[in-house]
Design brief:
single chain, alpha+beta, elongated
């Protein structure tokens, strides 16, 4: 029983410490823009990278179920980061049919030294992507012959 209490206290202290560390890194900006080739360019900046070791991104098509995209992005002390997402290309490579017009929501997470992830913001960034149906069809045909 005493061992369980100590474990619970350690866990609570770790959570409080993790929240304090993540508070040191303040998200200044998180934006998304659609490039001419339907790539989504995500850009974010933080006031400090103190208490975090990296960032992770997640994408959703319904603003409720998110899935990870890309690899963990390590802190490099630049304070400004970006990532290029190819949501239409991902759908083609999986062989799924994608909508010609699609909304995407992106969430950014801080990765703490403990491995925990903390949302950098409560609000996701939203973009509207309009895929060229000919390009999607041609991309699907090319993928079949690879």
């Amino acid at each position: 029983m005493e061992n369980t209490v100590l474990t619970s206290i350690r866990y609570i202290i770790m959570l409080l410490l993790a929240g304090t560390l993540a508070q040191a890194a303040e998200l200044l900006q998180f934006t998304a823009s659609v490039m001419p080739d339907n790539t989504v360019h995500l850009v974010w900046s933080v006031s400090s990278e103190s208490g975090i070791v990296g960032f992770e991104l997640e994408r959703s098509t319904d603003e409720s179920w998110y899935q990870p995209i890309g690899d963990r992005i390590s802190c490099d002390l630049s304070s400004i980061y970006d990532y290029y997402d190819h949501p239409g290309l991902d759908a083609i490579n999986r062989g799924n049919r994608i909508d010609v017009e699609q909304e995407y929501w992106y969430m950014l997470y801080y990765v703490l030294p403990t491995g925990e992830r903390v949302p950098a913001s409560e609000d996701p960034v939203q973009v509207s992507l309009t895929m060229n149906a000919v390009r999607v069809t041609w991309g699907g045909i090319k993928a079949m012959f690879r």
